[in-house]
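Explain my protein.
***
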Amino acid sequence: MTDDADPGDRPAPRHRRPDGACDAAVAAAGRISEALETTERARGHLYTFHQLTGHADAQLDEAVALLRAAGHHELADRTATELIGRNVVPGHWTFQLVEEYDEGYYRVFRQLERDVRDALTAGRTHVYEAEMKERRRTPGLPGHEAAPG
């Protein structure tokens, strides 16, 4: 911070390193939080897969009707019986994959990330990123404030 910078121009308390937290602890908490963010993105893609697969299955109803209208009853019957409503993996529709993911891996990941933050940064979020912002910003320059208004 420069001498003429506003002493109140600091990160919000929720983003400040707690007393006793070493660099390695802040980095570890930051990395597991970053990994959770990546998992959040993967989860979004899983929900996209779920919704797109369901939409495609519903579109097959019209395809079957069009095949019948075109006189291709055998292909319509095959599509209706072999594909519509089919499990995407043995025993599972996509909603079941989403549920198993959410109730298993994702639930454990979220809890472990919280446990790590609680143990290493007093439960504070984004401490690592807030410190990176402090290293990279220019205090006192408009658009470089530490925290919102």
Observations:
- The mean pLDDT is 95.
- The chain has one domain: 18-136.
